[in-house]
Amino acid sequence: MVPLRGRWFPCEADSAPGRPLVPLAAMSSSSGRLGGWAVRHAASLLLVASIVLLTIVLVHRGSDILQQIPYVPDLQQPQLLPHEQIMIEDIRANYLKPPSYEPYNLHENLKKDPSRGQTKVILEALKNMRNGFFVECGALDGETRSNTLFMERFLGWTGLLVEADPSNFRKVLSKNRNAWSVNVCLNSRNVKSQVRFKPAFNVGKIARQNASGTVEVDCFPLHALLLALDVRRVDYFSLDVEGAELDVLRTVPFDRIDIRTLSVEFAHTSGGGKPALRAFMESKGYTVIREVKQKDWTANDFIFVKNDTFSEEERRRLSAPYRRH
Fold first, then answer.
1. Residues 6+ apart with CB under 8 A from 43
2. With contact defined as beta carbons under 8 Å apart, do 159 and 165 qualify?
3. Neighbour count for residue 16 (Cβ, 10 Å)
4. What sign for the dihedral angle of Cα 183, 188, 192, 197?
5. Where is the Methyltransferase FkbM domain positioned along the sequence (predicted)?
6. Rounded Cα distance, 159 and 231, in Å
7. Which domains does the chain have, with CATH numbers?
8. Cα(121)–Cα(134) distance, rounded to whole angstroms?
9. Would you state the pLDDT for residue 200?
10. Pairing outcome for strands 180-182 and 158-162
11. Which residues of the chain register pLDDT less than 70?
12. pLDDT of residue 7
């Protein structure tokens, strides 16, 4: 017998030649018992069947509805301006390079932490946090003196590598980093623009419009890059752009992007120098907990933590070595 729409119908095997037939009396008796049981439990069976059917329908329709509703991050409501939407679509279509799934291709594979001390202080503040999100600008070649490579390799972080120098950026891609990469500079204005950039490995910088030996590079504000990735929280922002740090930070909407820790180079900062940089970040709700410096000038960084994220006691503990000097 096979079920069909709640009724039972005989299949071909039931009437096959040679198969013994069940006596009519036995069939009647059995049918009576089954019929009585079915009548007594009909309401329960109907309720169970209805619940199962309704669940299937709701799950199916729910899936369809979720597919029809686009994800809109908080950053896009309501402050996103028309020109920002254009920038975001441009970045997604033409600039962002996705993380690599290939094995790392590092020059010094055995060197765990290539930073010059910044990574250690940041991870002390974040208590060796796993699976965080970073932004590193400039990323150089993705390995040399990288402030984020250790976090990525050994603590499961990912993030965004920003490098303006096209030759350096090709090297970044060759390292097979598990992070998004983008060959642009960070703009000091809330628009897309173009600048002349003089490549020089770790000291490349924006040059005069008519300077020789330069290349044209596109620039975007940091928050546009993050919007393009649907990111609204950055656990660590490493900023080293050969003097333009303060100008870049002034474009960051700190009320819209939650940046928990930063390392910011101060050696070449224009527009008031080191004191102005510190004062600006303090006005945005950050505290300097350390200065990371090396005698060979490979590090001259403030380490900032966000006051809303770290308690006064934590900030005091983290800054104790700094205050003793």
1. none
2. no
3. 8
4. negative
5. 136-287
6. 10
7. 114-184+230-319 (3.40.50.150)
8. 15
9. 67
10. parallel
11. 1-79, 199-208, 270-271, 324-325
12. 33
Classified as helix, coil or strand, 62 is helix
Q: Where are the beta strands (DSSP E) in 105-230?
A: 133-137, 158-162, 180-182, 185-186, 193-198, 205-207, 215-220
Q: What b-and-e string marks burial along 219-257, b requiring 16 or more CB atoms within 10 Å of the CB?
A: bbbbbbbbbbbebbebbbbbbbbbbbbbbbbebbeeeeb
| C-alpha to C-alpha distance for 250 and 238, rounded to whole angstroms | 15
Distance (Å, whole) CA 69 – CA 62: 11
- As given in the structure block, the two tokens for residue 28 are 């009647």
Contact between residue 185 and residue 164 where contact means Cβ atoms under 8 Å apart: yes
Q: Is the pTM of this model over 0.85?
A: no
Task: Give the β-pairing of 7-9 and 2-4.
Answer: antiparallel
Q: Is 108 helix (H, G, I), strand (E, B) or coil?
A: coil
Q: Give me Rg for the CA atoms of the chain.
A: 32
Please report the pLDDT score of residue 11 as a whole number: 40
| Residue carrying structure tokens 């050696």 | 267
pLDDT score, position 9: 34
Please classify residue 96 by burial: count the beta carbons closer than 10 Å to its beta carbon, then call 0-12 exposed, 13-18 middle and 19+ buried.
middle
Q: Return d(Cα 221, Cα 84) in angstroms, integer.
A: 10
